[in-house]
Amino acid sequence: MRKFSIAIPMFSVKHHGGTRVLLQLANSLVERGHSVTILTPEDKYAPIYSVNKRIKIKFTSKIGNNKFFYLKTLLEFIFKIPKSDFILANFFPTLYPSFLAEKLGKGKTIYFPQGMEETSPNYKGLINLLLSSTEKSTFKIKAPIIATTKWGARKLLNFNRNIDLRIINLGLPDNTFFPDPDPKFINMKINKAILYFPRSQKVKGLEDFLQALDILIKKNIKFELWLISKETQSLSKFNHLKSSLKIGVLFPLNDQDLRRIYSSTDLLVNSSWVEGFCLPVLEAMACGTPSILTDSGGPREYAKNNYNCLMVPPKKPDLLAQAIKKMLEDEELRNKLAVNALKTGEKFKFSKFVEEFEKFLINLK
């Protein structure tokens, strides 16, 4: 099989889901004999996910807390991207320096936008308009695009009917997510546990989830809450509930910890307005944990209402609360959804994603 080199400019290498996918992809590619270079600001490199030692890490200048330094990083990306067969841009600001680096003969740009319209709704007014228009304009640049879902592909085609588009579903690492309840977590439960990942971005629907919790508490529905987050700001939003609700904050160190948490909780809730794919829901399904999620787009690829999950419209806290109440009180429903969730989780493998991704690039070379 022909080998290739690929450069991946990233604004940060930390704990976000998109970062995790890119690192897993990079790890898999070097294991298959390809060459991978990751470029990132020096002070934004703090991976909690494994990074293969054969991946080359190339640093740009520190950003700090000055957002104007992001513009400086964009310029540095143009000139510091090494000559490669491909340059992989995964976020619309990194597409521009990638495309300019291509014009300098540094490699062919591939666009891999994992999220869709997730950034601009966090801002208002002129900044919102600027970010939204900038993001949409990236889909008119002539670069092959990889979408992870049919929903995402349709969104992309709405911006540009003539793009070179390929759909490659994300998946789960082989032999990583499966039912594996931990007696420690099971024994510490007083009531049925709801698992939730608080995120500060407005489009993650944290405020909607909080309103749904208030509705459930007022109805005297018994449950407890498990939160997975390192965002102090997000976690502080739950402080007012501590007097009426048992809340646990968990910090999984690896996929094994995460698997045991998924397997030990009773249901997962996701309240996002927009999701490109939403791996946590699929991970929970693979562990036999039923989910309640909002119809945020990308999860339609695997989430089927009343088959392997309950799905409600986004921005509807009352409907979200109704679905949670129904799930908590209906054991037969939970069991049915759990069985079908397991079947769904088995169909989506990361190894298949990597194989299709690799073939796509080799055919372009």
Could you walk me through the main structural features you see in this protein, from its secondary elements to its overall organization?
With 365 residues, this protein is of the alpha/beta class. The protein folds into 2 domains: 5-171 and 349-364, Rossmann fold; 183-345, 3-Layer(aba) Sandwich (Rossmann fold), CATH 3.40.50. The protein is 41% helix and 15% strand. The protein has 13 helices and 13 strands. It has helices spanning 17-31, 69-80, 92-103, 125-138, 150-159, 183-188, 206-218, 232-236, 255-264, 279-286, 317-329, 331-345, 350-364, and strands at residues 5-9, 35-41, 56-60, 86-89, 108-111, 145-147, 165-167, 193-196, 224-228, 247-250, 267-270, 291-294, 309-312. The strands form 3 sheets. The protein has a 6-stranded parallel β-sheet, with helices on both faces. Strands 3-2-1-4-5 form a 5-stranded parallel β-sheet, sandwiched between helices. The chain is globular, with a radius of gyration of 21 Å.
Q: SSE order, as H and E?
A: EHEEHEHEHEHEHEHEHEHEHEEHHH
Number of strands: 13
Major sheet: size, sense and barrel closure? Answer: 6 strands, parallel
Shape summary: globular
**What is the number of independent domains?**
2
If helices are DSSP runs of H or I spanning 4 or more residues, what is the number of helices? Answer: 13
User: What is the SS-derived class?
Assistant: alpha/beta
